[in-house]
Write a structure and sequence with these properties.
269 residues, alpha/beta
Length: 269
């Protein structure tokens, strides 16, 4: 059932579509260890109940932890630095549904000159490998800075964030943090840098920080492009956050697939 759940996330399938795919696609049945001859293909209700079981016992977080334990054992997750960032996941804004209302746990926010309705996925990413180690979910109107403390694992010495995290080190929940915060300079201040040697050095330092922060965009690309997850599937933060955490656990495996294959060959007797 866990393999079926993973395939459902990989290929962005609904419960009925997952059941149909298991009947139609032999490679999916082989991966899940199922057989039409034995009549072992689960129906859509069984697939739904298994997903609810994962949500009820918060097993998505444990799946991510187990994946990261594997990656750490293979030397792919170094835990010396963390990059924090967030992305908006859209939710249906229409009220033309059974309840006649939008999801009350989703909210509206403005980014740039555009309004978005949905939730935010906040992630903490290993600064060396670019792999995700922590995920939280909030309504879209929650400020990125409010989740910064929850995205740290406590072992990092450096934390990197964009200008949206300005002032993060002054917040009450972060005053006991021993890591150094490297937050990007606001664009207006950077444009106002003097045309001097000092201004040039500051600009070069900001460029170095930006190159490090760029790694946080890769997991978001895998989530939205590789797995096709650009809009929430369920109602409520708990269900959607559980799915997002599972997707980031799978994205870690996808991003590290080549290194994992090489280490598997090395440890093979």
């Amino acid at each position: 059932m866990l393999r079926i759940h993973f395939m459902q996330q990989w290929f962005s399938l609904s419960d009925p579509a997952m059941e149909e795919a298991l009947y139609d696609i032999a490679s999916m049945r082989r991966f899940a260890g199922l057989s039409l001859a034995r009549g072992s293909v689960p129906d859509e209700t069984t697939i739904l109940n298994f997903r609810h079981l994962l949500e009820k016992h918060r097993l998505a977080e444990q799946l991510l932890a187990q994946v990261n334990t594997l990656l750490s054992e293979r030397g792919l997750l170094l835990r010396q630095g963390t990059i924090v960032d967030a992305t908006i996941i859209s939710a249906p804004s229409s009220t033309k549904n059974q309840s006649g209302a939008r999801d009350p746990e989703m909210h509206q926010t403005k980014k740039g000159n555009e309004w978005h309705f949905g939730m935010k996925a906040h992630i903490g990413v290993d600064a060396d490998s670019g792999l995700v180690h922590t995920v939280t979910g909030t309504p879209a109107n929650a400020h990125d800075i409010t989740q910064a403390h929850a995205l740290l694992h406590g072992q990092e010495s450096e934390v990197f964030g964009d200008s949206g995290y300005t002032g993060v080190e002054k917040r009450e929940e972060n005053r006991g943090c021993s890591a150094r915060w490297n937050v990007a300079m606001k664009p207006g201040r950077r444009r106002a840098l003097p045309a001097s040697k000092l201004g040039t050095l500051i600009g070069e330092f900001e460029h170095v920080k930006a190159r490090i922060r760029a790694k946080v965009e890769h997991p978001f690309r895998v989530l939205k492009r590789q797995f096709g997850y650009s809009k929430v599937r369920y109602r409520g933060l708990v269900k959607n956050t559980a799915q997002i955490i599972t997707l980031f656990a799978l994205s870690n495996l996808w991003m590290a697939r080549h290194q994992l294959a090489m280490t598997a060959v090395e440890v093979r007797p």
